TrEMBL record:
One Pfam family it belongs to: SCAB-Ig
InterPro entries named among the record's database cross-references: SCAB, SCAB-Ig, SCAB-PH
GO BP terms in the entry: actin filament organization; regulation of stomatal movement
Organism: Tetraselmis sp. GSL018
Molecular function GO terms recorded: actin binding
Keywords, in A-Z order: Coiled coil
Domain (Stomatal closure-related actin-binding protein Ig) ranges: 129-218
Lineage of source species: Eukaryota, Viridiplantae, Chlorophyta, core chlorophytes, Chlorodendrophyceae
Protein name: Proline-rich family protein
Length: 344
């Protein structure tokens, strides 16, 4: 009896096990079927995403192509503007050259008609004359009849249209490079105090071709930067003449080192002074005397004469917009050169 009951119990256990196994088998098949359905759905989604991704790549490629074309168009427009500006500058330079040529033709014709015109002959020992063209960027030199510099105390002066003269403080060497304030004036150089020991330029100082247009362009932009070397600081020669840059803006002046670190800065003020170097040999045409403050005076050297004159004119014109007239030491600021009217 006990053995029969045990067998029945084992059979029941086996039946239960078979039933559970069968249920598990059915569940696995159901899960497998669901997994297959999900797999197919995922495959369809992956396929759709792949197509969408491909379309997006094509659209992105087209957008990049359009962006590249737009950038090329912007560059072409920028180059066209630069070329137009260069053409305008060249037109201005050509007009100035034509005016200068016409003036030289008239002067030549007058010289042919009048034998007494032209430089005064050097007939007496000690007489001298001024050599060189009276133009911004040029260099004037005093020489005697043999071409040598005269001996004596020299003094350069500006002679205005009304005949009055004003001495140029510090201009007491045999060479002198005209300052923008000299435009429209005849320059004279005297030795000693005798009226017979004086020479004058044959014509008033003129602007160099294209200079006025470049200055007006910088004024319109409101800023300009020039490469410079600091030659002197408060009268002391700088042994290490590193490269600097001077930025002239509508509000003031700032000088930077080669690394871009600010070194000097000043807003326009009545005690500021700026003029061309008054002496210094051939380098004077590149030199600027700039006194930013009463205790801060600099002697700067630009890369070329044109940069020097543009820089000086910009500083004076920007300062004038603030009601401040700037010049060099002891200059008569009431007789300054006016860029707009082109009159001294």
């Amino acid at each position: 009896m006990i053995e029969a009951n045990k067998a029945v119990w084992e059979f029941r256990q086996l039946a239960d096990s078979m039933r559970k196994a069968e249920e598990k088998g059915i569940g696995c098949e159901s899960l497998a079927k669901k997994d297959r359905l999900k797999t197919k759905e995922l495959e369809k989604k992956v396929e759709l995403l792949t197509e969408t991704n491909q379309q997006l790549r094509e659209e992105l490629s087209q957008a990049q192509s359009i962006s590249e074309v737009q950038e090329e168009l912007r560059q072409e427009q920028s180059r066209c503007r630069q070329l137009q500006e260069e053409v305008e500058v060249l037109k201005g330079a050509r007009e100035s050259q034509q005016q200068e040529i016409e003036a030289l033709r008239r002067e030549s014709a007058a010289a042919k008609c009048s034998p007494s015109s032209g430089p005064k002959p050097l007939t007496k020992p000690g007489e001298f004359q001024i050599l060189g063209r009276p133009m911004l960027g040029g260099m004037l030199r005093v020489a005697d009849e043999s071409g040598d510099p005269p001996v004596g105390v020299l003094q350069w002066s500006r002679k205005f249209l009304d005949g009055s003269c004003h001495q140029i403080a510090g201009a007491c060497r045999t060479q002198y490079s005209p300052d923008p304030m000299d435009v429209g004036c005849v320059l004279t150089c005297s030795i000693g105090k005798g009226p017979d020991h004086a020479a004058s330029t044959r014509a008033p100082v003129m602007l160099s071709p294209g200079l006025e247009d470049k200055v007006k362009s910088c004024l319109a932009e409101g800023t300009a930067t020039f490469n410079i070397v600091i030659v002197q600081l408060n009268g002391e020669v700088q042994s290490r003449k590193g490269m600097y840059s001077i930025q002239v803006t509508s509000t003031g002046i700032e000088i930077f080192s080669a690394s871009g670190k600010p070194k000097f800065q000043a807003d326009y003020a009545a005690d500021m002074q700026v003029c061309g170097a008054r002496g210094g040999g051939d380098a004077a045409s590149h030199g600027i005397y700039l006194c930013l403050q009463p205790n801060l005076a600099l002697m700067l050297a630009c890369e070329n004469a044109q940069d020097r004159n543009i820089c000086i004119m910009l500083i004076r014109e920007f300062a004038l917009r603030h009601g401040i007239a700037l010049g060099g030491p002891k200059d008569d600021l009431s007789r300054r050169f006016d860029l707009t009217s082109r009159r001294p």
